[in-house]
Amino acid sequence: MQLGHRKTRKSFDKEGDAHFLTFSCYRRLPLFTKERTCRWMIEAINLSKQRNPFDLWAWVIMPEHIHLVLLPQSNVRIASILTSMKLSVSKRAIAWTEEHAPDFLDQLLDLQPNGKRSHRFWQRGGGYDRNLRTTRDLHEKIRYVHQNPVKRRLVEKAETWPWSSAKDWENGTDSVLKNRP
With respect to CATH, is domain 18-134 assigned 3.30.70.1290? Predict the structure, then answer.
C-alpha cells in the first residue's frame, strides 16, 4: 500500500554554482500580504546569511511564494540556508496566528498520512532549486525574479515593488535587505 508521494527538492551543492530557489506558502495561501510577515522573511534571510554565508544577488517576496538567486560560500549547503530561513518565519507566523488570529489556524492545518496533525506555514517539500552555471542563466533568473510582481500585475514597474531587490539593481546600490519599508 502506497501512502502518498512526498515532494522532495533535489539540490546539487556544487561549489561555485549560483542557485535559483523558489519556495511556497502552505496550500499557496497568500501569507505574505502583510508587512509584518514580509519583514519576518527579510529578518530570516539576514539571519540565515549570518549562519550559512551566501551572496544574495536577487530576491522577491510574492504574496504566496519567495524567489531567491544566491551563491553559497564554501561548504555551505542549500538545505542549511533554507532550513534556517523557513523555520524562523514559520515559528513566528504560527505563534502570531495562535495569539492574534486563532480562527485562521484551521487553514494552516496539515493532516499527515501517519495521522499526525500540525500547522504549516510552508508547502511540504523543499521547493524548487536550480543550479545556475552560465552568465546567461544567471541574468535570465534575475530578470525573472524582478519581473514577477509585474507579470502578476501587482505593480507596473519592478522597481516599485517594495519586497524585491529590483530597486537596488535599478539604482546600482547594494542596500539589499537593509532599508525596506
Answer: yes
